[in-house]
Amino acid sequence: MTEATIEVAGLRKRYGSTAALDGMTFTVGPGGVTGFVGPNGAGKSTTMRIILGLHTPDAGRALIGGRPYRSLRRPLSRVGALLDASAVHPARTGRNHLLWLAHSQGLGRRRVDEVGGQVGLTTAIGRRAGGYSLGMRQRLGIAAALLGDPPVLMLDEPFNGMDPEGIVWMRGFLRYLAGQGRAVLVSSHLMSELQDTADHVVVVGRGRVIADTSVADLVAGASGGRLTVRTLAPDAATRVLTAAGASVTGTGDGALAVHGLPAERVVTVLTAGAIPFSEVAPHRATLEEAYLQLTREAVEFRAPETRQAAR
Amino acid sequence: MSPGNGYAFWRLLHAEWTKFRSVRGWLIGTAVAALMIVLFAVLTGASAIGHDAPPVPIGPAGEPVSDSFYFLHQPLHGDGRITVAVTSLTTTIGGDRGHDATVPWAKVGLIIKAGTGPGTSYAAVMVTGGHGVRMQDDYLHDYAGQPGQVSAADPRWLRLTRSGDTITGEASTDGTHWSRLATVRLAGLPATVQAGLFVACPPSVQGRGTRTAAATAVFGHPDLQGQWPQGMWNGEQIGAGTATFGGYPPLPTGGAADIHGQRMSGGFAPSGDGFTMTGAGDIAPATRSDLPAAGVIGDLLFGTFPALIALCVVGALFITTEYRHTLIATTLTASPHRARVLAAKAIVLGCVTSLTSLPATALALPIGERIARAHGIYLFPVSTATAVRVGLGTAALLALTAVLALGVGTVLRRSATAVTTVVVALVLPHLLVLTPILPASAQRWLSLVTPDAAFAVQQTLTHYPQADSVYTPTNGYYPLGPWTGLAVLCGYAAVALALAAILLRRRDT
Amino acid sequence: MRPALHAEWTKLRTTAGPAWLLLASVTVTVALGAAVTAAITCPNRGCGLDPTRLSLTGIYLSQAPVAILAVLAISGEHSTGLISTTLTAIPHRPAVLTAKATILTLTVAASGGVAFLASLLVARAILPANGFTPAHGYPSLSLANGSTLRAYAGSVLYLVLIALLSLGIGATVRDSAAAIGTVLGLLYLPPILALSIDNPHWQRLLQQAAPMSAGLAIQTTTAPSTAPIGPWAGLAVLAAWAAGAFLTGTLVLQRRDT
User: Fold this and answer.
1) What is the pLDDT at residue B161?
2) Residue B391 binned pLDDT confidence (cut-offs 50, 70, 90)
3) Distance between CA atoms of residues B83 and B454, nearest Å
4) Is the dihedral of CA C106, C112, C115, C121 positive or negative?
């Protein structure tokens, strides 16, 4: 087992009568960004806190490079974590916050300035952390996670509070870190944030893993033989395509979503019916759609969705 | 103010009350405070041991008294007059090495008493160690006569005249020109009374303690007139077995007195045509230092202190948690008038804390009293009105403390610092006032100007000018009156709230 | 352990709060000591006062900022959420608390040493003018005197133990307001309770077992035979309290989720 792994097996945790974790199991390997996705309350933060030895599970284990976190010496050189970016002393400057953390790992002041520069906090680092914006605090948190140059990074909702520019930066930065061979686990409750960033996703709901798959497979599965047809005569097109055995639904923006027929057959049917069309293309699902499709089964997630539909 | 403002404030109160009752920790803190008051009343009562304590003499008005003295007396029937000259009064203080200290309320003179039992009705005219000639009756009443000390060159003549149930006391410096001190009525005075010469000497008050003392007086021939025939004089120590009798000092032994050595004793001997008499004890209302084993109801309310700390924590957190979780921004957005928000918080906090503390004190006092009495402890009696004042005042003290903590919490914005400031301001002075480390003047000053002054609301003892005692807060005597003391705390709370209101308006949140 | 110590030291010195609290502690020690020594007089031989103890009166007040400092060292991290970061950096809980305890011990001992030394100098300057002269049986206060040295050095130890006690309670109770309330209650209330109960047996027991009354016995220089507890035994009682609180705090930090 390499150093750059997170291994979570059969985690269970109850808080009173609610089960926060119900057999959470997954593994994060090196050299990629793994998205840790699920609705609020699905158990993402609890899992991360258990990995870091902050919470004790009722059952199961969580290992970093094959060892429990609490047994690590100089743990920040094994795992860098960002949990709650607002957990800083408001009166301490960003630099001093990083400095005490560096000292806890036997590191010096030079490393502090290095990571500060890496996350782009060069000017703000000398100011009191109490005056930071949420985005700046996220950068400070990332800098703290990078202090020990760890092979494993674990970031809880790092996109929270970031402006669009910051989000773009964060995506590039995460890719860059993974490119150095690190294992990067990034949690988010918004799948779209991980588009073009994550190679792999672990989708969770109600304290357990729903899907543990590569992003490519997930998107392909969700796209599943669907075609998009653009036409000026949607009613006629629907009629002829249904007659040919396809199922057709309107997508709302004037296009039609067609299932059950290959693209060549669709073109033939439309041409035969003399129905004008401007586009027949295979549909490529967004990560968001794939995620929604996956989590639709999770009861916990269905409730807020129906409420949204009723609005 | 617009007409809607009253309603708006009512809504604000409602909002703050909802905030308060929805945090479980605060409700627990408030309940703990109330519980502590009751719990410690029970514990204090139950920990007391008073069995086998000597009896406490009770005066005609129901108050505890000292009634111990050396009495040279005979029974006398009907009306009459007794006259005597006093030519010398000296005092001996136990453990004193030779300097001639006087005991200001050493008393020698004439007394007419309903009987020799402790606590019985009397009237007396006397020469004192430092307060000149006095007439006193029934322990509580004192009338001043000519000042100055007595000596062989400057003697005093004293006389008491009984007529029915009234007694007149007179004094003279030459035996011919008499001045009347007072005429008093002793209700229910029997036809036959015990009358004669007495010598009493209360313990000498020195700093925070007392030293036993005895007085020796030289009397001329006691002259009886009216229906009173000359008879045999009997010498007797009155009240020797009572709780308020401090005993005799050790015999002076030339050099340093040995406090474990042989003690002096009361007695009389003929000298010339009169008597030399030695006696100790006192005829006066009892003070706390006369009754070291007795309790006051304020002792039962020790629970006020833990309650006060719990309510300080609640009061400070009521505002500081808003700062910590930046809830203050939400609060001030919902109602931008800063002072009004603070007022609403103070009112809610004050009402909740006083409404929980009041039943607690109302329960604690009678329960603690009952348990303490069952353990044989003598408690200084209090009227119902006084007991109600103590209960109400303690609840008010606790509510004011919580409000003070709210104000200080708003100013400091840090709960730990705020709680410490208020607790230290109230509890530390109390501790320093109670423990005998600081000089008495410093202690007096502390209980005047610090918030600790508020504990005066729990005092139930009376400061008697005609009895020397250790009148310190340690013994339950505060320099301020109950409500004045509470007003000091009120002032602190008001200043803290005013400062808080100003800062809330000035500061960015 | 070294890195944990270094980290805690950096934490302590990079916010202004601890420095202010230590400064407050020193100031009140000296100021109260000066006020009390200025207020007392000894007009003749054998006035029954203990000038050493009186010059150290400031400790009654100066222990409060020390307690705040120690409580905030741990419960302050709970309230900001910083504790998670600390325990992520140093997962060994006892090491975290031990590092905090060590740093507190050093800083409180240093500031306490300064404070009491200043109190001693002030007392030496004031006392002779108020009648505390060799002629009245009071030689000048000096650390060469065994019992005076014990009182002064013991007071420094007392403050250190108060800090450790507060740290343990802070780790156990977590909420800073509740923790400081508990500490102050534990310190100030038993002596008051001892004075308000009538049972001499319980009174003595309270004075022997309560952290403050027992711990401050170290300041006694006169008549130790009548005292409820001897100087070192008293300090040992306080040390037991501090150790108990520290162990409980470690256990709670170890067992509870953060």
Assistant:
1) 94
2) very high
3) 50
4) negative
Q: Where are the beta strands (DSSP E) in B11-121?
A: 65-67, 69-77, 80-93, 107-113
Among A165-179, A295-309, B170-184, which is the least confidently predicted range?
A: A295-309
- Look at B47 and C192 and tell me if their CB atoms are within 8 Å: no
Taking the Cβ of residue C90 and every Cβ of chain A, the question of whether any pair is shorter than 8 Å is answered with yes
pLDDT at A108: 87
> Hey, what's the torsion of the CAs at A122, A124, A130, A132, to 10 degrees?
-100
Residue B3 has pLDDT above 50, yes or no: no
**3-state secondary structure (DSSP) of residue C96:** helix
What subunits make at least 3 CB pairs under 8 angstroms with A? C
Distance CA B68, CA B237 (A): 7
Give the nearest partner residue to C258 out of A54, A72, A92, using CB atoms: A54
Measured CA to CA, the distance from residue B312 to residue B401 in angstroms comes to 6
C166 to chain B: closest CA residue: B416
pLDDT at site C107 = 96
Nearest chain C Cα to B431, which residue?
C192
**CA distances (Å), C132 to each of A79, B264, C42, C123, C141, in order?**
65, 35, 6, 10, 10
DSSP three-state, residue C72: helix
Res A249: pLDDT: 80
- β-partners of residue C79 are none
Q: What's the pLDDT tens digit per position in B342-375?
A: 999 999 999 999 999 999 999 999 999 999 888 8
B85 and B126 Cβ atoms separated by less than 8 Å: no
Pairing of strands A255-259, A79-82: unpaired
CA dist B454 and B456 (Å) reads 5
Type of residue found at B360: A
- pTM, whole model, 2 decimals? 0.84
Could A76 and C15 be called an inter-chain contact, meaning their C-beta atoms sit closer than 8 Å?
no
Instruction: Give kind and range of the element (H or E) at residue B224.
Output: strand B223-226
For residue B37, pLDDT beyond 90: yes
Pairing relationship of beta strands B133-137 and A6-15 according to DSSP bridges: unpaired
Average pLDDT over every residue of A76-89: 89
B223-226 and B80-93 strand pairing: antiparallel
Q: What is the dihedral of CA A118, A122, A127, A129, to 10 degrees?
A: -20
Question: Looking at beta carbons, which pairs linking A267-275 to residues 24 or more positions away fall under 8 Å?
Answer: A269/A240, A269/A241, A269/A244, A270/A229, A270/A231, A270/A237, A270/A240, A270/A241, A272/A240, A273/A236, A273/A237, A273/A240, A275/A231, A275/A233, A275/A236, A275/A237, A275/A240
SS3 for B11-22 is HHHHHHHHHHHC
Query: Rounded distance, CA B257 to CA C253, Å?
Result: 61
Out of A204-218, B9-23, B101-115, give the one with best mean pLDDT.
Answer: B101-115
Contacts of B27 (CB under 8 A, 6+ apart): B21
Query: Can you give the pLDDT at residue B96?
Result: 58
C80 contacts on A by Cβ (under 8 Å): 87-90
How large is the greatest C-alpha to C-alpha distance in chain B, in angstroms? 95
Q: How confident is the model over A151-168, as a mean pLDDT? A: 88
CA distance to partner chain A, nearest, from residue C55 (Å): 36
Q: Does C20 touch chain A (CB under 8 A)?
A: no
In this prediction, residue A301 carries a pLDDT of 45
Q: Under DSSP, is residue B386 helix (H, G, I), strand (E, B) or coil?
A: helix
Nearest-neighbour CA in chain C from B71: distance (Å): 33
Give per-residue pLDDT as tens, B172-192. Answer: 998 899 999 999 999 889 999
Q: Please tell me what DSSP assigns to residue A149.
A: -
CA distance B77 to B97: 46
Query: Above 90 in pLDDT, residue B468?
Result: no
Nearest Cβ partner of C192 from B310, B419, B431? B431
Residue type, A296: R
